[in-house]
Amino acid sequence: MKTITRRSFVAAASAPGLLRAAGRARRCVIVGAGLAGLAAALELKKAGWAVTVVEARGRLGGRVFSHRFPQAPGLVSELGAEWIGESHARMIALCKEMDLPLQTHRFGTWLLRDGVVRGPSEWKYSAEAESAYRKFEKEYRSYGRKEKETLDRYDWWAWLARLGVPEDDLRVRDLIDSTDFGESIRHVSAYAAAAEYFESSAANEMDYKITGGNSRLIEAMAARLDGASIVTGAVVEEIRERGGEVTVKAGARTFAADACICTVPATMLRSVRFDPPLSARQAEAAGTLQYARIIKNSVLFASRFWKAEDFSIASDATAHFYFHSTQKQEGEPGILCSYAIGDKADVLASAGAARRQLTITRDLEAVDPAASSLAWSIASYAWQRDPFTRGAYAVYRPGQWFDVRPRLARPHGKVLFAGEHLADWQGFMEGAVVTGEAAARALIK
């Protein structure tokens, strides 16, 4: 019997429905100009379709959002999507197609607990925890559908505890693993976590970024869409299907087409009127799926006191996780990103910029006592407060992966759905691109 992986399951679950929904439509309205929407638009344009992209923001790119400080314009960091993984074949190919070079963006992991800093070689999980984890990894590789559905009913913390991982190791795992999901591992499906770690690259897909900023990909894709209609600042209020035609309403404007690809996050589906309405089960799924609370804080420092190019540090402090954002970028100043999740993200989001900078840099004084005095500026973005996403990316809680995700992926008449929340590579740029292209190909066929 073929082993079902997270990757193959999603493809198998979503593709047949999309193919059945496909017709011979030649016009398509795409809701959302993030990676999923732009990828779908490019695929349709290449096939000769007339494409209209409708975006609520005043800019393109959605959750891809590069930043430069006025004080150091030669340096770039990401306030949105960060990593391209070794296994992200489509993103790697797309960057090559757009002539956008990738650079290594991998890290060692320092640990800051109780005010003490330990380097990557100075801390490790207990022998008991390692043994239990590796034994489970081996068992997981033989799991079939039934075992994975059982695993999905547990949260990652509870499952690791069930395996016999000691409590202190669980606390460290929560500090580190929670950064992958945007919430404590007490809220994350054990299946989603196991698939993340056992079906990924050695660096858990934290391998590369685009030289010069990930927003360069958005700019390149938009340039290739020359001739397509892209409307920004237009919040979609209604998607209606009547007589074989789909009408998308955004304020006073109306866009008609033969099909629609809707790439908005599940959190925003609740704000769109569908006529005919979504099924009760699909609407319930949209109302159930939560998105991660993440705040990214780029802090510009006068000098790179952390020394190591691959510096990152997981901490029990409010700032949570720091990593070096300016690897291979020239100059003495440098940028560390504080990446805080869950309740910590809400605490930092509630603070003013000056207080937030002080909180983040003060904790770094354990690395270098001069850290606070070296800080020049801060740029922050709290994705849980973003009005167009209400979170950073989808978080599949216990019992949701094999239930909620397939319901959200189901086409609604001539409306197809795409976005990272539906992807096998969920939470990554790869997932957005793959689902956008898949929806477009379903229409083309």
- Return the CATH topology of the largest domain: FAD/NAD(P)-binding domain
DSSP strand tally: 22
Major sheet size, sense and barrel closure: 7 strands, mixed
What is the typical, i.e. mean, pLDDT? Answer: 94
User: What portion of residues belong to β-strands?
Assistant: 15-25%
Tell me the number of helical segments per DSSP (H or I, 4 or more residues long). Answer: 16
Question: Can you lay out the helices and strands and say which pair or pack?
Answer:
Layout: H1 6-21, E1 27-31, H2 35-46, E2 50-54, E3 66-69, E4 72-78, H3 89-97, E5 102-104, E6 110-113, E7 116-118, H4 127-140, H5 145-152, H6 156-163, H7 167-181, H8 190-198, E8 208-210, H9 215-224, E9 229-231, E10 238-242, E11 245-250, E12 253-257, E13 259-262, H10 266-269, E14 273-275, H11 280-288, E15 290-291, E16 294-301, E17 312-315, E18 321-324, E19 334-341, H12 342-350, H13 353-363, H14 371-374, E20 375-382, E21 394-395, H15 404-409, E22 415-417, H16 429-444
Helix pairs in contact: 1-16, 2-9, 2-16, 6-8
